[in-house]
Amino acid sequence: MEITENTLLNGRLRYRQPRLGFRSGIEPIFLAATIPARAGERVLEAGSGAGATLLCLAARVPGITALGIEINPDLVALATSNGAISPLADLHFIAGDITAGPEIGLFHHACANPPYHTSGSTPSPLPARAQAKLAAAGLFAAWIVALASRLRPRGTLSLIVPAAAVPACLEAFRAARCGSVILLPLWPRAGRVAKLVLLRAVRGGRGVFQLLPGLILHDAHGFTPAAQAILRDAAALPLDNQG
Which domains does the chain possess? Predict the structure, then answer.
């Protein structure tokens, strides 16, 4: 597997990932920005890839302990090497399937950027990318239930998903007894339809559903200042869930 040397957060973090196949975009950075972790807390990620989400979270919140579970062992090896470069947190990555019930204890927070292409989509000719992007039937529900089962009471579950997946996610939150759901759309530009949304729920939460105004990613000059603060400066993107 050929590897490229890249960076995250405007050069703040070194990041190694495959040249071909699945490559990280902006999604893990925005996901990391929403996780309300504090130093000393445990964070779990499903489908952790080469570790971008947990690396970015550790850059913002030093002192966390985090575990990434990834089905592709080559990506686990990359994530482990990427985590070793960062002295900011206790990061670990293991090969496995979050729905297979690994014994990993309980966490304060869980997160995922799940595969989202449906079986009707044109698959990537690259097997690793197809594996990372193709969502089997019921995947959102299975991942949400599995992640929620590993949360402490009042722990948070954060996702970044396509807007079309929101109904399935909301149903799965209910099945997993997660409430106080907050949804934040990511608008590509002002007036455009949101393709991606951020979701957060609380295990055992009883607050009402909240739809936040959302974040506009681009303007005439490129990324908006609010988006740049997250992508370059590791700023937080608070979802003020008091449920």
Answer: 3-233 (3.40.50.150)
